[in-house]
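Structure first, sequence second, as always.
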């Protein structure tokens, strides 16, 4: 008998989710229609291509992979118990720390802009000093 009650609840939840999806599609269709009407009257410009181009853009994933790579290398150096690997990682970190401040700021600004964060305060001294 308890299974019947659970099935009934699951069916109601499924019906509600389906109903909400249909309502969402209808609302999106209405929004597209209103936007098209405003474009036809010259009140708004077309923005669809900009949004479509962002959907097929993989630069965020590439930047995330690049930023994750040093963490993976450090993890390998620690877990492998290879002293030569750890020495090379230490040398890399020393050279990386010696990079000029302008390069570091530029890199942070580029990454921030890719992820949609305003990073201009970095150049104004908003980031931590080295």
């Amino acid at each position: 008998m308890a299974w019947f009650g659970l099935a009934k609840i699951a069916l109601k939840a499924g019906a509600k989710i389906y109903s909400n999806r249909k309502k969402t599609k209808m609302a999106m269709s209405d929004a597209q229609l209103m936007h098209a009407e405003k474009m036809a009257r010259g009140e708004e410009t077309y923005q669809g291509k900009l949004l479509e181009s962002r959907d097929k853009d993989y630069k965020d994933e590439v930047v995330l992979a690049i930023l994750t790579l040093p963490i993976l290398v450090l993890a390998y150096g620690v877990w492998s118990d290879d002293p030569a690997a750890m020495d090379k990682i230490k040398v890399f970190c020393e050279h990386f720390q010696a990079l000029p401040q302008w390069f570091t700021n530029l890199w942070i600004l580029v990454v921030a802009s890719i992820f949609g964060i305003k990073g201009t305060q970095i150049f104004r001294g908003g980031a931590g000093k080295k």
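Margin note: The helical segments are 2-40, 48-55, 59-80, 83-97, 101-114.
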